[in-house]
Design goal:
single chain; 540 residues; mainly alpha; 3 domains; 64% helix
């Protein structure tokens, strides 16, 4: 009896010991709580490194086991992030906390929904202009290469066949529309490597075979896609629910899919109706002539840049920094045929698109290059804040027109509104591709049919490139139009807040100083109103 009691007691002690040890391990494994902003900065730097793919001889590892490990590690990063409490921080630091949250959510979205490595054959393009998701792209080198660059470039070339071999195994759920885009992209890559092999011969003959092997691998991969594409489901959209989740949790954008569609259709109607009013206003003027001479084109570009720079200062739109200077282009001889809708406008008046490039993207890029804020000042990966960037650039076209930029060029006002209508058509294509209503080629047709005067063609290379980006990066297509709408909402909020004290220059100075971050965060910082952010942070 005593022996049995002794055995039972020992067993109980063992169980208690194991339970206590397990509890101790679980307790020690839990992330330490923190209210330190420095801990957020350290976490941010570590997380940015974590998101980079592991490279082996230049080949990024996107195999199923590697992606499973990354997803598991992402969960651990999430737990560590949730242990950081920003509630006592100033607004600027709490905004940084939300920016890191957006990046975590973006990576989570990639694993749950986008799964580029298993769904998107174009993910493995080696020459993609817009690709921010994968590593392994081969740059167009300036030859001859520096001695210390030859080995690295050879590694990149030799990685191409290995990347594409891995792609065939990784692509377990490819979509037909994404395969179509990859097939077209491979045409460009095959030509690139053929040209590269010829260029390398006089400078680096030891790399010629590698360039040719890369081109052959692209050709083989393209052939494989053509053979397997008929068995793939055609549409690649992610659905309304996931699209809305992405807007709310990654872009911190206050509208869902349905609201975006309503706003897009309204802006399309407004652009066309205002366009007809402008057309009537200038009905007695002679028709605008298309430029055909490149020297004339270059001259007018320079004049437009200088005119815009002077207008911005004289009308006090914002404080123009010294580093924002008029851009230049060069060239001689005749202009080529019109190939896209942007050229339809540019060949008539260079000034209509200068606000987009000069006052939008160029200024944003220059300011970001000079922004030393560790979190906010960095370029956002995965097109986070694209709505802010494209919204400002597109908005500047119409806002500066309204401010008087085109007062002496009434026909150019019509051009600006035509371009706005085209942005609305592309936004609708973005939304309908992802809702599953349209295939890629049907979306191309929608844009063609929605464009006034037949300015859009089904083989428009810019249109194909744009919709390629929108299908592979949800919400990018709506950003031009609805980012503009969101900034106008912020302008209205600020106007009603300060009333007669509102100064346009002060508004844009504060807006630009906030950085290229989601507009809802800029609104919180500029107005002190956090209602929009609180609503965005509620629920799933």
């Amino acid at each position: 009896m005593l022996k049995r009691c002794w055995i039972v007691c020992c067993a109980v002690l063992i169980v208690l010991s194991v339970s206590c040890s397990k509890a101790g391990l679980e307790k020690s494994a839990a992330p330490a709580k923190s209210a330190s902003y420095d801990d957020l900065v350290a976490f941010f730097k570590e997380f940015r490194e974590f998101t980079k793919p592991k490279l082996v001889e230049g080949v990024p590892d996107y195999t199923p086991p590697a992606m499973a490990r990354q997803k598991e590690e992402l969960g651990k990063f999430r737990a560590r992030f949730e242990a950081i409490d920003p509630s006592g921080w100033p607004v600027a630091q709490r905004i940084d906390h939300l920016l890191v949250r957006c990046e975590l959510n973006a990576q989570d979205f990639n694993h749950r929904v986008m799964r580029y490595w298993s769904r998107d054959p174009a993910f493995y393009n080696t020459r993609s202009i817009f690709q921010q998701h994968q590593s392994g792209t081969v740059p167009d080198p300036r030859l001859p290469l520096a001695a210390d660059k030859v080995a690295d470039f050879g590694v990149k070339l030799r990685a191409v066949p290995k990347i594409l071999a891995q792609a065939k195994a990784n692509l377990t759920e490819p979509a037909g529309d994404l395969a179509l885009l990859a097939i077209k992209a491979k045409d460009r890559e095959i030509q690139f490597f053929a040209d590269l092999a010829k260029k390398l011969e006089p400078h680096h003959p030891e790399l010629v075979a590698d360039a040719r092997a890369a081109g052959q691998a692209c050709s083989d991969f393209q052939k494989w896609l053509k053979e397997t594409r008929p068995q793939m489901p055609a549409k690649a959209g992610i659905g309304k629910a996931d699209y809305s989740w992405y807007l709310k949790n990654v872009q911190l954008f206050p509208y869902d899919w349905e609201e975006c569609m309503l706003l897009t259709q309204r802006e399309y109607q407004r652009a066309l109706s205002f366009m007809t009013l402008e057309k009537n206003r200038s009905r007695k003027l002679p028709e605008m002539k298309l430029m055909t001479d490149r020297e004339d084109y270059v001259r007018r570009h320079a004049e437009a840049e200088k005119f815009l720079a002077r207008f911005l200062r004289e009308e006090e739109i914002y404080t123009v920094p010294d580093f924002l200077r008029p851009g230049t282009i060069s060239g001689t001889g005749p202009l080529g045929p019109i190939r896209d809708f942007f050229q339809q406008a540019l060949y008539r008046d260079m000034l209509v698109l200068r606000p987009h490039d000069h006052t939008g993207h160029t200024l944003d890029g220059l300011m970001t290059d000079r922004d030393d804020r560790v979190i906010r000042g960095k370029y956002r990966p995965l097109h986070i804040s694209a709505i802010r960037a494209e919204g400002l650039a597109t908005g500047m076209e119409e806002w500066l027109m309204t401010a008087g930029l085109l007062d002496k060029r009434p026909q150019s006002r019509e051009l600006t509104l035509i371009l706005l209508a085209i942005r609305a058509a592309r936004a609708e294509a973005d939304l309908r591709m992802h809702s599953g209503e349209l295939t890629f080629e049907e979306a191309i047709r929608l844009c063609v049919d929605r464009t006034p005067y037949g300015w859009m063609k089904a083989d428009d290379t810019v249109l194909w490139g744009d919709l390629d980006l929108y299908l592979r990066q949800p919400s990018y297509g709506i950003g031009y139009l609805l980012g503009k709408v969101q900034i106008e909402g912020l302008m209205a909020d600020r106007l009603m807040q300060v009333q007669e004290k509102f100064v346009l220059r002060d508004f844009f100075d504060q807006f630009l100083a906030s950085g290229v971050i989601p507009i809802s965060l800029i609104r919180w910082e500029m107005t002190g109103k956090d209602d929009e952010i609180k609503k965005l942070l509620q629920g799933p």
